[in-house]
Each structure stands twice: as C-alpha cells, then as structure tokens.
Design goal:
The chain is of the alpha/beta class. The chain has twelve helices and nine strands. A five-stranded parallel beta sheet has the order 2-1-3-4-5, with helices on both faces. Strands 7-6-8-9 form a four-stranded parallel beta sheet, with helices on both faces. Helix 8 packs parallel to helix 11. The structure holds 5-phosphoarabinonic acid. The site of 5-phosphoarabinonic acid has 16 residues, from helix 3.
Length: 331
C-alpha cells in the first residue's frame, strides 16, 4: 500500500496531463463538494484552500451525507465524488442534484456513477482505478481543482500544481523517513492517539484521523486550537484515562498558530502525554496540506505493518455498506 502514497507524484502528473477540461460556464452561488470517507475528504481540502484564497467569491461547503442541504439549487455547482462510483450516500446526493437541476460534476474511477454520468452526458473525470479510495486523494482533489480553474473559478492554478509536482519530488524521501519515525514512536508509546493542530490545519487532523482509523485500525481524537481552548481543554482536566499520546501538526510560518499550539502542548505536558511533532514543509498551503497528509498517510500504513495488520482491508466499512442498502434504499 505504501506504493499508492509514493505514487502521488504520478497522480499529480496525470492530473496535469488533462488540465483544462472539462470547462463549465457558470457563476455559482455556492460550490458543494460531496462524498464520503476518502472521497469526502476532498471537500475539506478544497474548502480550506478556498477560504484562504484572497478575494475568492464562492463559498465552498462540504457535504458528507446522503442529503443535499435545502439551499442548494439551480444556481449552484455540485461535485459528486466517489472513488468506487457506488457509495450509496453519494448516489443519493447525485440523484438529488440531478432532480434539482444543479450543475453537477462527477469524479470517480468506476461503477454506477461513471456509467450513469457517461450515459447522461454529465461532465465527469475518471481517476485511476484499482487503488484504495483514500490513497487517490491527490488525483480526486486535483480533478476538482482542475474543473474550477478551467471554469474561471480558480482556487489553485496549473502553475501551482506544477510547483507541487516538483515539491513532492524533492520531499518524498524525507516524508517517507519521517513517517517511519512517527509510526515507530506511536507504536512504542502504545497509547490512544490525539491529533492536535491549529487552525487552518484542521483538514490534516480530520484526514489524519481517517487514515489512522482505516489503515491502522485505531480510534483517534482530534484537537484543533483555538476552538479546542473553549471545550476540549476542560475535558483534559479529568479524563477517564490518562493513556494518551499526541501527534502535533504545526505550520512553522504561522506565528500565531505556533503560539496557540505551544500553549496547547503545555496542557498535554502537564498530563504527561508524550508529544510527537510534525512541522509542515512547503511554500504555500497546498504544498503544506499535501506534505502533512502524505506523512500521516504513510505513518498510518507503517503503524499497521508494525501491528501486523493489513492496512488495505476495511472490513467494517464493507459490512456497513451492505447494511446501509436496507437503511437508505436505492436512490
Ligand atoms: O478510503 C476508503 O476506503 C473509504 O473511506 C471510502 O472512500 C468510503 O467508504 C467511500 O467510498 P468511495 O470513496 O468509493 O465513495
């Protein structure tokens, strides 16, 4: 599975090779990025990047559900993202988007969504099939960013993606080594894991939690300051167990973020929790988010290896996907 993450450079190259298409003529009121799990995470990245882009006029909302918010309608743009093309919640969203006449773009590698979008002539981007959905993050995210750039709704430009490719080439080895080190520390500490970070890096904490859940098969708590300082901090006064370790993710260029995180670490230290740190590399937020996600993704696979667990298998999700057919029904 490591090779899927090491293949992120190829995912960027593939995305660049088709940059410019499809291009839409639309001035959306709202952009909704929808999907579940590894596909749903794409929305978190796009919303973060849009929120940080100076002068960006289009609100981006993330929908990880089987229903579109009531306010999404004809003037909006919906990305329907499902790696397999078959996830039931996402198929419900797709049907709702079509019923409401919303401009819809599908990103998938296969399955119902590919066939249906092709049949109806709905714009879709087919990503590389045959890998774990969560490891296709970069290709799915760049597919959506490509459509936005090609439609004059730019959050990330082609030049930024070329820079990202070079950045990944320079840092891949370093990210791998750091991931191995982190996995060994987490394994040795053998305590419950908290991923702690400062805003606007919550997306790395969310993604990291999902990665350690799915690849390493462990539950994870997320702490994001400054909101953390208004609730979680009190929970740390009297936790039921003190058996925690912290993976702290920080952006060294964000002075206030670093200070907020330093304060956070004093609380963990008082409790005696071991802290493992990741300092993000990169010259812009896209590179930093990708670097952090890469390190954590690889670390979660390495932790699975140390525990003698198959990182690829997600038996419980398969079980849920059977059960949800009864619960939600066919769209
Ligand atoms: O990474 C995974 O395997 C999961 O989180 C899936 O992404 C999730 O179950 C949704 O499936 P899909 O991405 O095929 O829509």
């Amino acid at each position: 599975m490591e090779e899927y993450y090491l293949g992120w450079i190829e995912q960027v190259e593939k995305s660049l090779s088709r940059w410019g298409e499809p291009s839409l003529i639309i001035t959306p009121r709202v952009i909704a990025v929808t999907g579940m799990g590894g596909s749903g995470c794409v929305g978190d990245y796009i919303a973060t990047l849009a929120g940080l882009k100076h002068g960006y006029r289009y609100p981006v909302i993330v929908v990880k559900n089987y229903r579109l918010p009531s306010y999404i309608g004809g003037n909006d743009l919906v990305f329907v993202i499902s790696y397999s093309g078959n996830t039931l919640e996402t198929r419900h969203i797709y049907r709702e988007a079509l019923e409401r006449g919303v401009e819809t773009v599908v990103i998938t590698s296969n399955g119902f969504l590919e066939e249906d979008a092709a049949g109806r002539g709905i714009p879709y981007i087919k990503v590389t099939p045959g890998i774990a959905p969560r490891t296709a993050l970069l290709e799915m995210m760049l597919a959506a960013l490509n459509v936005l750039d090609s439609s004059n709704l730019t959050i990330v430009s082609k030049e930024d993606v070329i820079k990202l490719k070079n950045f990944l080439k320079e840092t891949m080895r370093d990210a791998y080594n750091l991931a191995v080190e982190i996995a060994e520390k987490i394994y040795r500490n053998s305590k419950n894991l908290v991923i702690a970070t400062h805003s606007p890096l919550e997306v790395i904490a969310i993604r990291g939690k999902n990665e350690f859940n799915e690849n390493s098969k462990i539950p994870v708590k997320i702490d994001v300051t400054p909101e953390w300082a208004h609730n979680d901090i009190v929970g740390w006064e009297k936790p039921l167990t003190t058996d925690w370790q912290v993976l702290a993710v920080k952006d060294p260029d964000d002075t206030r973020g670093m200070k907020l995180l330093e304060f956070m670490e004093t609380i963990y230290r008082d409790k005696g929790f071991p802290i493992i740190e990741i300092e993000l590399k990169g010259s812009n937020m896209l590179e930093k988010l990708v670097y952090g996600s890469l390190v954590i993704g690889l670390a979660s696979v390495k932790l699975a290896r140390l525990r003698g667990i198959d990182p690829l298998k997600t038996t419980s999700i398969t079980r849920y996907k059977e059960a949800v057919k009864e619960i939600l029904g066919e769209p």
